[in-house]
Write a structure and sequence with these properties.
heterodimer, A: 222 residues, mainly alpha, MetI-like fold, B: 270 residues, alpha/beta, 6-stranded mixed β-sheet, 4-stranded antiparallel β-sheet, 12 strands, 25% strand, globular, binds adenosine-5'-triphosphate, binds magnesium ion
Amino acid sequence: MTFDWNWEFAIEILPRLLRATINTLIAAGVGYGIAMILGLVFALALRSSGRLPRTLLREVLEFIRSTPLVVQIFFIFYVGPQVGITLSPWVAGMIAIGLHYSAYLAEVYRAGIEAVPRGQWESCRALNLTTRDSYVRIILPQALPHAVPGMGNYLVGIFKDTPMLSVIGVTELMQAANSIGSETYRFLEPYTLVGLIFLALSLPTAGLVRLGERRLRRKLGL
Amino acid sequence: MDLSAYPLELPESDRPMVRFMNVTKSYGSLVVLDSLNLDIQRGEMVSVIGPSGSGKTTVLRMLMTLETINDGVIYVDGKPLTHMVRNGRLVPADEAHLRRMRASIGMCFQHFNLFPHMTALQNCMEGPVQVLGLPKAEARARAEELLAMVGMIDKKDQHPSRLSGGQQQRVAIARALAMRPRIMLFDEVTSALDPEVIGEVTQVIRKLVAEHDLTMLMVTHQMGFARDISDRICFFYKGRIEEQAAPEQFFTNPQRERTQQFLRAVKDAD
Ligand SMILES: Nc1ncnc2c1ncn2[C@@H]1O[C@H](COP(=O)(O)OP(=O)(O)OP(=O)(O)O)[C@@H](O)[C@H]1O
Ligand SMILES: [Mg+2]
């Protein structure tokens, strides 16, 4: 067993890993897009009337949050076909990761919406705005800056969770490193590079999120 | 609750702008308003005064439909506000009915509640554009006219966070007026203000009283101001109207023991 870092080999496999990184970014981006939209739908549904559906939804989201993502990925990919829903690895993976993170983002949105002072709702009513206009034009724009830090955390989270998609064969970064490993029997370089690529992409995100939040607040005049 | 005793509509001959008819409001077991009866005539300015917790704010909030009521009926311009007519009977109002009725009522709050992410002008255009469906240009012209009226035209492009309390409250008044209400509600609109800017807000309200035929209901702790501009003073005590009279009569010759106590306490505090 030797621990010898081979620069030549590392440089040789880097382009392949970087190509796979693009897929990782696409997976994270698409998954996050689904999570953002679905999360908002859930957050609004949690606030709407109808006690029974509300309770039901709350329980379902709690269930999604408290079971591992990898189980959900397997479930959608392998159990789906048994009930007649056959999905490609990519589609199954995006649904799983989007749904999983939507349960977290729903909470982030809910907290953001609740942080908007009650007086804002009262102004909306006094001006006779519809509930829809109140949300779209008054409440959500003010809730957004509150939600941005949480949204940023889960953006990094979803990015770091994309390697799980390799278990169903999505050709992202981890999958590429795995293939290189099994083809060459060298693991040190591919996995180290994977780690460094993740680090290089995660680190600036937190800073960018903080910057984005400040910009947003200024733009909204808050 | 039995609504059969309440008219579906008030007769032409007896149609105040606002009528509270046996209105009761409670939170759990706490009765905040106890079978309130109160008429406000067209164009009348009525000031509501009373100790903290006596239900003054609640009266306004019910009229603005921010609160539901537990008993009784509120009429606006002869038509039920809290209820609507279905199959010849009064039933609790649905959202569509409330939206229709709310159109004639505007309200200003103690803490202004301006939309912080919009400029003063945008605050005053939001309702007219979104709710009344006015073209932007027309809404803007009207908003600017109102901002000029409250002396805020030179700050029209400022966000609320850049305005003083008095300025924010004046914008809030303009915003409410932009919806062309026939009834205006003011809930302690000067209570959150520094003493030196109270005058700029009361000045605006004076102007409204003098130049507009609005019906107004105002909760205030400023006795001098209430005395100056009101047609009538209503003194609330523990969820009931303890005494009401024209200002001169009310302040110089209060009839009830509790009114006298309250006025003495207010005077001592000054
Ligand atoms: N949402 C609520 N839940 C429970 N109790 C409430 C609620 N809103 C008001 N109350 C109670 O109702 C009573 C009347 O309140 P209201 O705000 O109308 O008083 P007020 O006369 O406006 O007092 P203040 O001069 O302090 O503004 C108070 O005892 C208050 O604690
Ligand atoms: Mg009050």
